[in-house]
Every structure is written in structure tokens, then in C-alpha cells.
Amino acid sequence: MQIQVKCSCGEEDCPEWAIVELQGVIEAQASFQHRLQNLQIGQLCRPSSQEVYTLTIGYHELTGSKVTLKKPLVVLKKVKLMDVDQENGNSNNSSNVELQVVGIIRHKILFKTRPKAITSKPQLEFKERASTAASTSPN
Amino acid sequence: MEHAKPVCRGAETILRIQPNSSISISYHPLFGSRDDLILLELDEKLLQDVLQERVTLRGQPEEDAVFCTQSKTYAMKFVATSNSAFLIPPSGQFLTCEDSSDYGGNSHDQEVVASVIKIAPGTIELNEISPRLDRLKLLLSENPYNFEEAAEEEVIEKRKAGFYSWDDLVNRVQASNDQLRAGLNALSAVEIDGYWRLVDEKYMDTILRMLLHNSVLNDWLLDQLREEEIMNTLEADGFPRMLANHCLHVYGSKVDSSTGSGTLWRLDEKRVCVHFAREILKTGKKKKDNFMAEWLQSIPDGMQASFDMLEGEVLTERLGVEMWVYAFSASSLPLNPAERFSMLFRERSKWAWKDLESYIRDLNVPGLSLEGLLLKYTRRTQPTPDAEPIFTAR
Lengths: 139, 394
Fold this sequence. Notes:
The structure holds 2 protein chains of 2 kinds. Chain A has strands at 2-7, 18-22, 27-28, 40-46, 52-57, 60-81, 96-111, 116-117, 135-136.
């Protein structure tokens, strides 16, 4: 079978997506684990005019920078198509899929250091596990 | 206390965040594993191909899909990451902040929020590979065109098993369009009534002999055959025009002529001579002297056969004092290098370079030279520095 890769955005105006990348995983508190939607993860901050960023998650702070990807990434979206071949007797119930280019990624904000604990800003109660993985808490 | 409604933004804000400012990052209302979103890494050249819709993915459900441009084939490899890559779309591409009422507790007047739609588990990377054309031969060999079919009066109305149109082949063979076309050409396939077909060897032999026979009868010059005349004559002899034309393509080439007397063809000496050598060796190995005598006898007048023409077609072996010749055609071997070398070493455990070369020179593996192939699949021994190197299996 053949899957077409479609692109409606053209060369110049392909929407740019972003990646914020950090080491390890973020674990939400158990009560939120299955309804992460809309939950706040953290605060991304650019403290100066340099390309240095901080990401504050709960009482952890990560420091990172904006990097340009060596090779761009495209974001493809799998789209199931309605079977238009039905009248040709061609429909053996194989779902027709096409891939659509929905975005391009050229940069990411990368946090490759381990988190630093913030002690001076006890925004949240200390409930999270001590691990390299930072945790998310609802505000 | 009334909280300010957050201002929803996306990737554009993340990428252009102003100094001394901050953005809240949250999970998108549509956040999930989102298997429908895939990240594909491309270099700038392939990016252009993708943006201009010149690529397709090909493969059967049970195969690993390949990525094809017009001319090349790439393997798709998923490369996982243990990092968390938060994927943030630009605002406006997915519904954002529809249901953001649970926000609050921030000290800003208006909070700017960017939402993460998915945590990407990795990316797909592309690696150029050689096209997987072995299946093409397998498919087309299911049902070659032959005498019985040529004798059928009625046009085939319904589609038969083992008949493949271009679209059928594209759906089944993992190769780019250009590579598929080159593969069809290398197999001497012909499109008959919308289906790509191999023509039975016996049929090709008969039509070629008939063409040569007519050339003698009509005093045609083998390097100036008039297409119209050939086709008409062969058609009168009972061969479909399509096949007559195919015969010219397989054994000849068009002559550049501006004389205006229609298209002219020249029969290719090597291809015609190789054809007759194959015919002679079909029955099995022959003593070289006998073979040569029979071969020279069978080729058309005016053509010169030399044993060099048979590189990659025949092998010789010494049995006692006699030299024997047998058919061993490079074109019958698999295109996959590992399988090719395994077949070669099954045929012979030791190969001299001069013999081996003609059986591997058509192998084309991106990123691997012929030298590289030899290093990977063979062991090279050279008893003395000026001796011929010998290649054995690794």
C-alpha cells in the first residue's frame, strides 16, 4: 500500500512548532495522573537577553538554552480518509490513511542539566518524590 | 477572588519569548499519547520534497514502511529518546484554552500560557537504502506473457491473478518511481494492456529468430532496421505489434537518424549474441570448444561473438584436461547484497576478482562502495603480494 504525504502549508508558511525538552520524566501527583489536560507544568522564563532559559517546575528549577536542530523535524498528522473507492469495489475495509504536514520544528529549548531545588520560594507543599524527575503540581 | 483568564499562546511565543518575561507551560486540553502525531527528521533537501508533496510511504502492512522520493528510497527508523520532549503547537492550530477555568493562583495580571499537546517518545530518521526490487521479479514471474496468451482471440476482459498494473506495483514494491522503472527496464518487462509483464523466454527467442529470418529474406541491414517494416512483417507472421516492438527494445536500440524514413533500429551485437549463448547452455554445461563452435554458428551473419561478452553470464571450470562452460547469470541473482554473496559462495567457494566483479558490480548500496561490500561480505587472501587476490566467504 501507499501512503501519501500531503502538505497544505507550502514552503514558506509551514507553521513552526516548538519543543521544550528535559531529561527524565515529569510525574504528576497520583490524583492527577489520568487527567493531565489543562494542568500546569511549570513556568518558562527568559531572565536576560541571552538565550538562556529557566524552567521552574514545582520547587525545581532547570537551566537550559535554545538550540537549533541540526536537521529540521516535520510534524506529521495521521489522517484516516473516508473510503472514496467504494464504487470501484475496491474497499476491502482497509482504512486509507494519509499523512499531513502540520508543522515544522527548527528549534527546541533544551534543559540538559539536572534540576536544582529552590528553597527560597516554597510555593508548594513538599509532597513530591526526590528523584531526577521533577514533578508537577496543580497550582 | 477572580482570576484573570490566561492568554493562550503557543510555539510562536515560546520561540520568541522576550527577555525578562515568562510563560506558563501547561498540558493542552487535547493532550494525550496522540499517536496520530509523528515527528520525522529530514535534511533540507528532503524537506523540500515533503513540503512540495513529492514523497510517499510504501510497503505492505507486515513490512517496515519505506519513504520514497521520485528517485530514492529511504528506510524509516524510529529513534526513541529517554528525554521528555514537550511538543507545543502554535496557537490556532489546535483548539487551545477552551476549558481553562481551572487556572489560577498566579500573581500576574494576565498569564500567558503555552500548551503541550504530546510528549514525543522519539523521532523517525531516514536512511537511504537500495530499493527492494527482488519482489518485482517475483511478482512479474507469476504470469509471464507466452504463446497461449498470444493465441487467445478475445481481449482479456477481467483482471487475472498475477497481472500487475503500475499502481499495483507501486503498492507492492518498496522502491521509488525512478527505481521501479529502472527495475522494470532491467527485467525487460513490457506494459501490455495496462499490465506490466515479463515475456516468456521461449516467446522472445521465437520472435527474435523470426526477425532475423525476415532480415535475411528481405536483405535488411541489422543496423538499419525500419521500425514500421519490422512491425508489419512480424505482425503478418502472427506476432502482436506490441511484442514486435518489445523485441526491438530488448535486442536493439534506436538509431539517431534525420533521414526522415521513419524510426530506425540497430540490433545490439552483444545482446543478440548473449541471447544465443544462453539458448545453447539451457540444456546444461558444455565443453568450451563445442560451445564456441555451436555459438558462432548460431549467431546472425555479420555479428562477431567473443567470449568476453559472456562476463556475468557464464562460468568456466576445468574438469580434467577439458574446459567446460555453464550458464550462471548475474541477472538471476538476488539484489540484496547478503543474499547475493551467499548465492555466489554457494556456487563457488573461491572467487578470483576477474570473475567476481561481473557478478557484483550492479549491486548498489547507498553509502557502501564496492570495496566496502567486499570487506563486509568476503575474506580476501593473497598468498604473495603479486598474486591475484582470492575472495572467500566471511
